[in-house]
Input
Amino acid sequence: MSATKLLAINFEGYFMCRLATDPDPTNERRGTSGYTMAVAGEDDLDQILRLQVTKEQKAKWLREPALANGIDPGVKVSGVSFDGKPYAPGEALRGQPVNLTGRSSSFAGPTFQSRNNIVGSDDTMAFAVDPFDFRIGDSVRALDFLDPADAVLYHQRYPDGTAEIGPGDGCFPTTEIWKIANPQIYLRRLPFAFSATSTEAQEAVGAYDMYRWFRDRRRFLEDSIRRLETGNDPQREMKIQSARSRIFQIEEWGLRVIGKLAFQCSWQHNINGIRHVGEDLARQLNGTIGDEPWNISYWCGAWDGDLLTGYMRGTLTMPFTPAS
Amino acid sequence: MSTTPPTTRAGWLNCEHRTDQERCTAKSIICRKHLVEALKDGAELEHYLMCMYLYAALSLKRYPDEACTAAQVEVVRRWASQIFMVARQEMEHLALVNGIFSAIGAPAYFIHSDDFQNRPLQSFQLNVHADGGSGLEPKQFAFSLDRFSPSTMDTFSCVESPPWDKVRDKPDEPCWCFLKPGENAAPALSARRAFRHFSPPAAVPQANTLQAVEEAGAGTVVELYTAAEHAINTIPEDILFAKPGNQVYVIAQYDIYVIPVTDRSSALEAIRLILHQGEGNLSDPAVTSHFDTFVRIRGDLNRMQHEDPKFDPALNLVANPRPEAIPNEFTRDMLKVSAYSYGTMLMVLTAVYDHYVTTGSAQDVYPHFSEALFECVFAPMMTMVIRKQGEILTMLPTGRANERTGPAFDIPADVKALLESHQAGNGPELTNIDTFVDRFEHLTEDVLALVGRVNEIEDEVCRERVRQELEFLHQNAYRMTNNLKLVYQQGKFSQF
Output
């Protein structure tokens, strides 16, 4: 007997999440009491965790100086290995976009679910990311059901795994988090670790000195106000006040904003739902994907509450036997 | 007038004084009974102020319109953020006063009077005097639920004002507390005293009009808490803190600092914190206080309206809403659901404060009554139910042109009776989990019923928005009900 060896697909990159924060309600649209907000000219906060952001969305939502500082949302495959060693056939995946799709009845995409301590905990960072429909390009899909009983039901009804899943008409309806009475049921989907002082997180974004990071940010915003005041931008006043609101939040909340650059929340769970590798990719990988469970581990952190961006790094593993 | 302290335990506890010189006065409380009464006044004051500040904050616009540009909305948002912060700190003050109640073995107090809008604070009571005796006429203020406006900010500034000589950056006059030259005084408000519990034995019976500060008992926030400080310093510690209850632990976050009160030193610290945050550190005026916050907002508002006379930062919310005065049936019923939720929250708070068990302590065994309530009352109830219902109300038409409403902060009569009965030591309802499960189930059903009626809302955009909000509210109420039952059985979920 030998241990099953795994194909490991590593991914990382910046994500964007335009979320409300305590003590605002979870579905707050503009941001009032918390430290995050949609400023003038921006769309409402929608709470969605976005691993990919379109050009149009970046133009609307990605605040300066994100791009100038190298913060460009888009999580990608960074490498593929087999049994811990680089796996050449896996290079087909390098650079492929990684995404989380799906929606719930309340939100148009996946969110960090706590609902002000109703289904999780803001105090212990116990959030389930839900729904969890993980995709790599068009070729890999790993969907996990929050309630394992849904996985059993889905596989019984749709053994070929082709039925749509979600709250829409004609879709397989999942049990949403608010309906699950006992959080033990989704315990596996809660973080297994949380650190408020993660050097890995800080290193990922280059924020070694968190205070300097936000001192520079504040200086940038003040400089932009000065330029606007002497310029003739038709939206001058709106942009000035938006910059002032951003400065206000950094000043008002201080360490609560600054310290999040070192946050790291880690999850790990098997994939109990759809596990799919497209035919083309399967051929390119030059091997056989086994029946044992897939597993995903990832962390989200290095959160910039002014830019509404953070960093994600993780690994999707699947049992694999290379062709000899 | 100096007061001779009692010499008997009964004297220290119940003011069983024997001579005139031994009686408590407005400035010198020396028995537990009158300390409790004065602190009830303090609790009601913090409660009223919180309601007023929340109402004003809820009225502030979040989106631009014809009277508020996108740039102006950003300024308004910052105001809302600050006013919500002040309201949170009033909740903190209410929690601190209840912490003192726990420490001295008195029942929790989360009640306020039905007619608090008829209990005026008069500015002469607020110890604000113009320099040089210019003869300015003090305004009368009512505890009133009003939309944000210049006069609202006058009221808020005045209520939180320290003595005039402590105000830095003084304008020419304490304009927030006094009538402008040529401004007519409003008709005298009903002269029921603002502070209704503590009645110094020497005070005259309630008169039709207040003629002098002494008749009002404690007339200012500072006086009230100074009198409480005096009592805590004077009553022997082993008598006052003889039977302390458990202190409710509230995590320090979002500018809230609920310190545990266990003895004289921590009780005095709690009072200092209340005064420091309200009027400011009287020896260090550079520290931001509620007063400072309101005066700055007031100044910004005046400047912006001078620059742009059509600028209006607030929605047109009716003052002091009453369900019976709301023509629109849907809105009226939403207001009733809001009152039901508010009453439920006050019941939960009372039960938590009176029966608190620390998670993980030796007492933390089944049935986990205190924990079940504790886990639902703060962020879940306050943010996701009470505030959310308030926001929904501000979207709804009253039935009168261009008018909307906010929450009434009425305590329903049945809840009021239950809480007062509890104060008197009667009524087991607040120790029975079924009381609360029943109320949460009822609330969940009421919200679901409103979801089914959203088509009554004529405006399409408003209808869709309210539908989404109510559906989300229903989901959360549903889960909170289940959480209540589960935590009661199993205790707090370890990951949370």
User: Anything to note?
Assistant: Residues 6-322 of chain A form one domain.
